[in-house]
Automatic annotation (TrEMBL):
It comes from the Bacteria. Belongs to the DapA family. This is Dihydrodipicolinate synthase family protein. The lineage of its organism: Bacteria, Pseudomonadati, Bacteroidota, Flavobacteriia, Flavobacteriales. Keywords: Lyase. SMART domains: DHDPS. Coiled coil: none annotated. It holds the Pfam family DHDPS. SUPFAM superfamilies: Aldolase.
Amino acid sequence: MGIVWEGVMPAVTTKFNNIDELDLRMFKINIDAQLDAGVHGIVLGGTLGEASTLTDDEKRILTRETVAHVKGKVPVLINIAEQTTKDAIESAKKAEDDGAQALMMLPPMRYKSGDRETVAYFTAVAKSTRLPIMVYNNPVDYKVEVSLEMFEQLLQSCPNIEAVKESTRDVSNVTRIINRFGNRLKIMTGVDTLALESLLMGANGWIAGLVCAFPKETVAIYELQKVGRIEEALKIYRWFLPLLELDINPKLVQNIKLAEVYTGLGTENVRAPRLPLSGKEREHVIQIIENSLKSRPEIPDYKAI
């Protein structure tokens, strides 16, 4: 099972209806918008997907429904975020059975694992599955960093660990990874506000957040920079930055779901304990969204590049 680690892969939000059930109709509306924009993969059950609130059955439904809906146009990935190695191995097996083409994988949840434990955890899961794996390295939010030395061990023993979602928020880490591993470890930038910078430094692609509400702008930035049309990419990126900053915020799920409402690609329904934005916080996010929509740039025909 192969996957090309490049391009824009949205970390899609999970849609809920007014009685807190999966809203597959709205979910598929958003997926169709992503496909129409030309994304290169779909990532389910990440932070934006409210993974920690989803039941096992809901994760499996999302995987199966997405695989059936995209019909092979792009690969479907699902995130593994479990507390035990046993559960992570079981989740990987279910993902493979349900048709996922690859896994995104966080270190163990809740328990702050040490370096040796983290390597052992990733190794055990990788050896249990045929699926390619992208390690989600986000020490800012999840408090465990996968160092270059740890990647060295993982890459030597686990050929199906193929990529990293680079979310350390240190753009120079892109160069460190390339200098250390060359083409062996593909780099998918995972921080919206450092996306273009990371791509220009050599990252292969972008696991994106605001793409959920603005798919065409996101893909356009990637495609334009890829062919060296940097000024055009920069113009869109500079317009986009106030929106992208909504992603590096504890309320990123609520922020992005509110943006999806404004672009017709979602609802504000979140799963408790999350609640929709209110008060001055809501007013601030609405102002950013509305100001951005008023100055929304014209997008070049990036599909013809």
